[in-house]
Amino acid sequence: MLDFSILNNPVGFESLDELVIHLVNLVISFSVLIAIAALIIAGIKYILAMGDEEKVEDATRSLIFAIVGLVIVFIAPLVVEYITNTLLQS
To answer: Which spans are transmembrane here (predicted)?
Structure first.
């Protein structure tokens, strides 16, 4: 029989759920940065539109998409926590 007790844990996590939670938090943090950058870019597009109807419409659409993305990013941890708790209770 193989003895795996001599192997060290290379990732530093004690369980799979700790690893998954860490990875999800990392992805969410990165997504927040992207959503904030999208908000800034949409704001700059809105400023640079200077009254041009087509550019203002494009900037408004970009702003709405950025806000929706930010809302999704803030709701995602709640969904992940709910799913994790549901699966771990089973």
So the answer is: 20-42, 63-84
